[in-house]
Amino acid sequence: MIKVVKFGGSSLASAEQFKKVAAIIKAEPERRYVVPSAPGKRSKTDTKVTDMLYSCYDLAARGEDITTYFGEIETRYNSIIAELGLDLSLESEFNTIKNAFIHKAGRDYAASRGEYLNGIILAKYLGFDFIDAAEVIFFNENSQFDSERTNAVLSAELKKHEYAVIPGFYGSMPNDTIKTFSRGGSDITGSIVARAVNCDLYENWTDVDGFLMTDPRIVDDPRVISEITYKELRELSYMGAGVLHEDAIFPVRFAGIPINIRNTNNPEAHGTLILPTSEKYDTGNVITGVVGKKGFSVITIEKDMMNAEVGFGRRVLEVLENNEICFEHLPSGIDNMSIIINTHELEGRRDRLINGICRAVNPETIDIDEGIALIAVVGRAMVKAKGTAARVFKAISGAGINIRMIDQGSSEISIIVGVDEADFEEALRAIYQEFVY
């Protein structure tokens, strides 16, 4: 059995955290390939190393002296090395990085050095081989991740190493400059490594016990989801759930590899297991999670007999396409059509969009309502449970909240409701309480 393990910034913020990570890795010899992040915050008032590197690089780009500030970064790493009792010097790496900053090597290069240096330290501490991600993870000329080349090269390289550390967050461009992932960071690297070795399990270690059923900032102490499918995770991540960015899912989803979200500070906790598919249901929980976010607008178009007008919907969507606007949902009736979009998409385009739709389909009325929040109730068990939608609507109605929009896909894995932004938090709490308490 082979496991790939990724540790986030909070898991590697200090020497004390390094010791926890090493204990976790050494506890199971199957944990053979490790992907580290840069050191995160040691306290709420602390600064992440990646942010320190960005700030230091910005000073250098303005031609200012970076000696003092760069010294703080050196001190951060050297303190970890000293407290771990390692016979290791990063002086050569520090000099190279400092010179590169002065000669303006780029912000991606600057940010990537956090993972690079942490990877060297962790490899030394574990006694693992170190593989520079720039040599095995590639982007193409258009700055897009080159998945197939990466998979081939990385797979071949990892076969040469029984145990290895591969720093997360970055790879290289065809001209050998450093390029970072724009979203998902080290989570994506961990997923890429997991696919390359075709591992049995990808463990993503963070600072929470797993994927929570809802937002803890809105609902006190929400339950941890014990098991979830990729489809459910994508629905929840898209609607704002944290822990794992949806971009980090695809490499392992492509290979059908399970992901286990675990807590470095509570390694005994089972965490959340993310599976390609599952027929297993928690009979006590019809829903897997309930999440949402604000910042949406509804474009409502009304016209008698629009359902009999061939090409009506296509012409409306062409107007959105011509204005480079993506839609989120399309709930419709016989004589009306609603389009849900992100409100920021309207900036500088509102009049052009309305005029374009009027020319395209000549509607009787067209309105745009802003201030809409969407809530997604997600669960693979909903298709087996009668009355789930009724319970959702009952919970919202019982809280005295008006539903502005309803949308449910044919797969029945999710129900989307729209409410006024002012009612968002209360509606989410009401739904959670209906199904969990």
For the structure shown, list the relevant keywords.
single chain, 437 residues, alpha/beta, 8-stranded mixed β-sheet, 5-stranded antiparallel β-sheet, 13 helices, 15 strands, globular
Question: What does this entry look like structurally?
Answer:
This protein is globular. The mean pLDDT is 92. α2 packs antiparallel against α5, α6 (147-158) crosses α7 and α10 (312-322) packs antiparallel against α11 (350-361). Helix content is 37%, strand content 19%. The protein is α/β, with parallel strands linked by helices and 437 residues long. The chain has an 8-stranded mixed sheet with strand order 3-4-2-1-7-9-10-8, with helices on both faces. Strands 12-11-13-15-14 form a 5-stranded antiparallel sheet. The longest helix has 20 residues, at 107-126.
Brief rundown of the structure:
With 437 residues, the protein is an alpha/beta fold. It has helices at residues 15-27, 49-61, 67-84, 91-102, 107-126, 147-158, 186-197, 230-238, 250-255, 312-322, 350-361, 388-398, 424-436; strands at 3-7, 31-36, 129-130, 164-165, 170-172, 178-180, 201-206, 227-229, 259-263, 272-275, 289-302, 336-342, 365-378, 405-408, 414-420. A hairpin with a 5-residue loop joins β5 (170-172) and β6.
